[in-house]
Design a protein that fits this description.
The complex is a heterodimer of chains A (287) and B (235).
Chain A: H1 2-31, H2 38-56, H3 60-86, H4 92-113, E1 129-132, E2 135-138, H5 139-161, H6 163-173, H7 175-180, H8 185-210, H9 218-232, H10 237-257, H11 262-276
Antiparallel strand pairs in A: 1-2
Chain B: E1 4-13, E2 16-26, E3 31-35, H1 42-50, E4 60-62, E5 65-66, H2 72-77, E6 80-83, H3 95-102, H4 114-120, H5 122-126, H6 137-149, E7 155-159, H7 167-174, H8 177-182, E8 186-191, H9 194-200, E9 203-208, E10 211-216, H10 223-231
Parallel strand pairs in B: 3-8, 3-9, 6-7, 7-8
Antiparallel strand pairs in B: 1-2, 1-4, 4-5, 9-10
The chains are: A mainly alpha (287), B alpha/beta (235).
Keywords (chain B): Amino-acid transport, ATP-binding, Nucleotide-binding, Transport
Family (chain B): Belongs to the ABC transporter superfamily.
Protein name (chain B): Amino acid/amide ABC transporter ATP-binding protein 2, HAAT family
């Protein structure tokens, strides 16, 4: 029974990693941009939520709802003013620029909020749990997982049911021909990054409520996000969820065997998947 | 005043100059053909007009307004739509989604809607939910043409629409042309097939090495003159 519990906890943890990864997957899928600052942007969003919580004294979910449009605007501007300038045939400039952005975000947060670790308080929700059969599941992990599903369903609906999603896919296939159809790739990219930042804000909400954070933890979140995206197959959102679950389960199973192995076993699982399926579990058919 | 007027158009890719002062006019309702061998500059001309290659503003005018420096999305919004060489359907979009994308830049309603495009190419209605790139070459070409029509263009640029298609399929594709013209679009057809071009166009421009070497009405042009303009004058 303990193993079932371990695996279920791992699946729920996978929801958190899928949330970390969904924004990265979205941006990569549309514009082939690998955003090395993704983890730091999650941490930035966590501080924005924390700021709203402490200034307005409202609950973290409401605070996140206020932070979302702020982060959308930030993402839109970031893409419009900075990232659109470096997109092109060569993949190196965007890597360098987002690497630099990562350092800038970390240091701005350090200046603004010090190196003290912070937490977004969620009151009794932090320790609440429900018993399902023989298992006892935390409400917070369940909420995280449900949010991950909701985010991925939402993004899929956006992609496959709306004119904006159609434009996303067309630009992703062929930006030059898309522009011949009247689409402005630069503004489509800006909207995509804005939406990715809304997803980042949701990820930040759970990051901040579930654990302590400080300005330096971004890059480690980036690694988990990366691994989830690559295990799932580049550009596939459901694959990203599957990738998050693979890492989550590997971590909890590893920790159950030996607590020192938690982080390591997640990375090992990633390497094993890469060895067996180099293109990930659900690669896109065309690319 | 011509609907579309190209004046002294030059274009280069880095050090390589592809167009040397091309002049061309297209009147409302007219169909012109641009013929020439591979590398004559036909596709470069299309890329310049559609905005993929930027030029000096006044080199290309639409209804007198300079559009030479506009980006492609702005050119479409002005009413110039392109059927690109090689069809370039969007691989992750269904037939219908490919058509709907064509309406993205449309400002005003017009004759062309999903319904009228399906009337023009009935096979596309049957296949509307399958991926565009899974169709046969001729059907893909119909999608590419339909997609361009969805913006209700005043000028339709068709780049090598018969390329790689069987003769019987080419006939089907070209059969759509009269109705496209009736609906109000002036058409620029880029062709390597001289016979096809002479059959459908009101006027023909022949290009060689980045220059217009001959132009006129098909009935006024002798086979020998076209041959010389196409391949160069033999010594």
């Amino acid at each position: 029974m303990m193993w079932v519990d371990t695996v279920v906890q791992g699946i729920l943890l996978g929801g958190l990693y899928a949330l970390f990864a969904a924004g990265l997957s979205l941006v990569f899928g549309i514009m082939r941009l690998v955003n090395l600052a993704h983890g730091d942007l999650i941490v930035l969003a966590a501080y924005v939520i924390l700021l709203v919580v402490s200034v307005l004294g409202i609950n973290p979910f409401l605070a996140a709802a206020i932070a979302m449009p702020v982060m959308f605007a930030f993402g839109w501007l970031l893409q419009r003013v900075v990232l659109n300038r470096v997109l092109g045939e060569d993949i190196l400039p965007p890597l360098l620029v987002t690497f630099g952005l990562s350092i800038v975000v970390q240091n701005v947060l350090l200046e603004g909020f010090t190196a003290d670790s912070q937490r977004i308080g969620a009151g009794s929700l932090e320790t609440a749990s429900v018993a399902i059969g023989p298992l006892t599941l935390g409400v917070m992990p369940l909420l995280t997982f449900a949010s991950a599903i909701a985010v991925i369903v939402g993004l899929n609906q956006l992609f496959y049911r709306t004119a904006l999603g159609r434009a996303f896919r067309a630009v992703s296939d062929d930006p030059v021909t898309a522009s011949l159809m009247g689409i402005k790739p630069a503004s489509v990219f800006a909207t995509a990054t804005g939406i990715a930042m809304v997803v980042v804000t949701i990820a930040a909400l759970y990051l901040g409520m579930r654990s302590n954070f400080d300005p330096t933890i971004g890059p480690a979140r980036l690694i988990y996000a990366f691994e989830a995206v690559i295990i799932g197959g580049l550009g596939s959102l459901w694959g990203t969820l599957a990738g998050g679950i693979v890492i989550g389960v590997a971590q909890t199973v590893g920790a159950a065997i030996n607590p020192e192995w938690q982080i390591l076993s997640g990375h090992v699982a990633f390497l094993i998947v890469l060895l067996i399926r180099p293109r990930g579990l659900f690669p896109r058919s065309h690319d | 005043m011509s609907l579309l007027q190209v004046t002294g158009l030059t274009a280069r890719y880095g050090d390589f100059q592809a167009l040397f002062g091309v002049d061309l006019t297209l009147d409302a309702g007219e169909a012109i053909a641009i013929i020439g061998a591979n590398g004559a500059g036909k596709t470069t001309l299309m890329r310049s007009i559609s905005g993929v290659l930027r030029n000096a503003p006044e080199m290309i005018r639409l209804n007198g307004a300079p559009i030479g420096a506009l980006p492609p999305d702005a050119v479409v919004a002005q009413g110039v739509a392109m059927v690109p060489e090689g069809r370039r359907l969007f691989a992750s979009l269904s037939v219908e989604e490919n058509l709907l994308i064509g309406a993205h830049g449309r400002k005003d309603a017009g004759y062309w809607t999903l319904q009228t495009v399906y009337d023009l190419f009935p096979i596309l209605k049957e296949k509307r939910h399958v991926p565009g790139v899974s169709l046969s070459g001729g059907q893909q070409q119909m999608v590419a043409i339909g997609r361009a029509l969805m913006s209700n263009p005043r000028v339709l640029l068709c780049d090598e629409i018969s390329l790689g298609l069987a003769p019987v399929v080419i006939r089907d594709v070209y059969a759509a042309l009269p109705r496209i013209r009736d609906a109000g679009a002036a058409v620029v057809i880029v062709e390597q097939d001289i016979g096809q071009a002479l059959k459908v166009a009101d006027r023909v421009y022949c290009m060689m090495e980045g220059r217009i070497t001959l132009s006129g009405r098909p009935e006024d042009l002798s086979r020998a003159a076209i041959h010389d303009a196409y391949f160069g004058v033999s010594a």
